[in-house]
Amino acid sequence: MPARLIMDFISGAWAVMKKDALEEYRARYAFNTTLLFCVTCLVMVSYSLGGAVTDPMLQSAMLWVILFFSAMTGLSRAFIKEEDRGTMNTLRLCCRADHVFYGKTAMNFLLMSSVIVIVAPLFIILLNVNMRHVGYFALTTALATVGLSAVSALLSAIVAQARARGMLFPVLAFPALMPVFLTAVRATGMSLAEAAPWTGGGELVFLAAYAVAATVGGGFLFEYVFSEQ
Amino acid sequence: MEGLILENVGKRFGPRPIFSGISFSVSQGEAVCLWGPNGAGKSTLLKIAAGLARPSSGSATCSFGGRSGKPLEFRNSIGVCAPDVSLYDELSPEENLDFMSRARGAKRDKAYERELMESFSLESFANAPLGTFSSGMRQRFKLIAALAHRPRALLLDEPSSFMDEAGRARVESIVASLKGSTALLVATNDPAERAWCGSTVSLGGDKFC
Amino acid sequence: MLFLAALFGFMAWTLYGALVVAPPAHVLGETARVIYFHVPVAWVAVLAFTMSLWNSVVVLRRHSYEADMKAEVSARMGLWFCVLATISGAFFAKSAWNMYWNWDPRQVSITVLLLVYMAYFGLRSATPDFDRRIRLAAVYAILAFAVMPFLVFVIPRVYMSLHPDTIINADGQGKLLDDKMRLVFWCAAAGYTFLYLKLYNLSVRVERIARRKEGWDV
Fold first, then answer.
1. For residues A184 and A148, is the Cβ–Cβ distance under 8 A?
2. What ipTM describes this predicted complex?
3. Rounded to whole angstroms, how far apart are CA atoms B115 and B101?
4. Which candidate from C129, C211, C216 shows the least CB-CB separation from B13?
5. Is A172 on the interface with C (CB under 8 A)?
6. Per residue in A146-159, is it b (16+ CB within 10 Å) or e — as a string?
7. What is the pLDDT along chain B (209 residues), one digit of tens a residue?
8. CB distance C150–A206 less than 8 Å?
9. Every domain of chain A and the residues it spans
10. CATH superfamily, domain at B3-208
């Protein structure tokens, strides 16, 4: 009965996400630090530029460098937190691996997109950005964040089982996330430029393809990271 | 046979072997004690039986309802209470139990949960975050969480640690009430806990005694 | 014995051929002789990484210590050959374009590849539990490999290429080398492949002895 399987899957992943959201709401491990990190970096960049005019590609590169490193600090917590508090085994005992992976990916997405919703307007104000194609920018960010969330969830589960996690996470994540990063920088630059970005379309298709590959492939590989069997 | 089966299990950390060639089974209604000095690998063996650690050699399997497979495939049939299995500090007992039953895809038996909470005198703390609990209260709730889904196999690692006299008595009476219907595996150093069990598997005896 | 003879034969002929037999190239002149080193070495790096990937898949399927050892040895060799390819490429870039580094797509890709496998070894050394280590490393190796097609697609869109094959083949003729050069080139490819196989075989044996000494039964 596929309908039943789908219902099981949704309720299992939902349980994991709901649990994480509740924990995050009570303790704010990740959201506050990630947001503060982003805002601090933006302010620093803005002040050091001192109102100098920068071109769209440079602005978008700065935005994504900031978002990338904030994701490194915020999203790596997903499983490090569980491992540190000894709750990883509870997850193993109660949850199926795919439910955990998709629940955590969804939580990462929620976390990252709520940070971006606050940071993007600040980016426009502080760096004097002329955002010409808001829809394109929103779609770029959403698709990039899906890929980022899934890959981060998988890598967080890997790093949580190793030593020197804080340092290891960006090292492991950078090569894996480089395609999203480069494409997101280009696509965001295009949404700041005058020409209509929609005509090419290649960037968005690429980001969507990466997002699909990361969520499907990540779910498959996660099984091996999560279960000790 | 219904229960837990360990065949020729060995574990090593790096090249150093902790134990090897351990075989035993725990059938439903049986109680087995894992006995041995510190560092003999009791907790590790218990985790292997629960599916939480991978044996370096041999295999751990589970068999319930005519089906057999790896322990973690029987999420609804296994309950574990061990130092390495913690619950969520930010959540209350109520929320922890809710999460665990949803994750298992099982229906909650709220009456039974309340009964357990009352028998461990935690009923007035059902909505307080676990982070505010003392270590003894935490241990009590860990046992409740291991029991709440009425598991057919119960794996306990030093279950009465951190507990006061009353708590120990509660654990003992609950274990006694489950003994006939559950496969029970207890890893312990405590002679009182050992006395609950019908048979004993000794680890690392010769080397350490 | 036959194998060693073939190895020495190919390597000697490759050295002689590369420096003496092959004529200087049409546009690039004497500097083009680097291809008898650079290209085979890069090919061996790819071969080694593919071996590492295959063994990583075996680790996940069978949790085999033996396969993990082979994956580690292959990755280490791949990394060394990758470094050689990067350095030889950079020297060529210096003489051809007067810059060691000019963000050619190949240079960017190979940097990412180096980063991936350095991260792979970083992960290995940071995971003390052996049974965990071999699985995590295998998952990371597969993940990194799965990302490669995306990089191949995205990098050329971002960076301009001056790599010789894209320039020399620009007229669509596709004829990069004359017959003599091609002979030397294929001998070099064969020679370095034999060299790789020999080194791989030796490394696996050394590693096996080292692990036995530590008390492993591999």
1. no
2. 0.91
3. 17
4. C129
5. yes
6. bbbbbbbbbbbbbb
7. 889 999 999 988 777 788 999 999 999 989 999 998 888 899 999 999 999 988 888 999 999 988 999 999 999 999 999 999 999 999 999 999 999 999 999 889 999 999 999 999 999 999 999 999 999 999 999 999 999 999 999 999 999 888 889 889 999 999 899 988 899 999 998 888 898 888 999 987 544 43
8. yes
9. 2-226
10. P-loop containing nucleotide triphosphate hydrolases (3.40.50.300)
